[in-house]
Amino acid sequence: DEQLDLSDGRWEDIHVVTGALKLFLRELPEPLVPFSHFDKFIAAIKIQDGAMRGRCIRDLVLSLPPAHHDTMKVLFRHLCRVIEHREENRMSVQSVAIVFGPTLLRPASEESNMAMHMVFQNQVVEHILNHYGYIF
């Protein structure tokens, strides 16, 4: 309900804007990739055959609820534009995946192997970024 004035000088720092976006996404009751899909995405990224892995991840993205799918499409399109400017902003595909992976894709409970999950979370985000055109 808060009205933001984006012309306010504090929004000029890209780190503040990115932090606000990550905070918003992190505080959603359910992540952009719903809890019900977490294990499916982790299993898909582990598939050895690249073509099969790609089809499986695309099918999982298509199976997301419309609000999740549509938001993911817009967000990942923007992140792909960020990556296009990696020479200036030093945000490679891997960097963006590390920053956004745990925020967009997380298990319902953090009890089990967090470090291993983080590797796979980042790989899923990296895969979607690298294959945006095919997936969306």
UniProtKB/TrEMBL annotation:
Pfam family for this entry, one: RhoGAP
Protein name in the entry: RHG27 protein
UniProt keywords, alphabetically: GTPase activation
Keyword check for RNA-binding: no
Organism domain of life: Eukaryota
PANTHER family, sorted: RHO GTPASE-ACTIVATING PROTEIN 27, RHO/RAC/CDC GTPASE-ACTIVATING PROTEIN
SMART domains noted in UniProt: RhoGAP
UniProt keyword Endoplasmic reticulum present: no
Residue span, Rho-GAP domain: 1-136
GO molecular function: GTPase activator activity
Gene3D superfamilies membership: Rho GTPase activation protein
Entry-linked InterPro entries: Rho-GAP, Rho_GTPase_activation_prot, RhoGAP_dom
Cellular compartments per GO CC: cytoplasm
Organism of origin: Grallaria varia
Gene Ontology biological-process entries: signal transduction
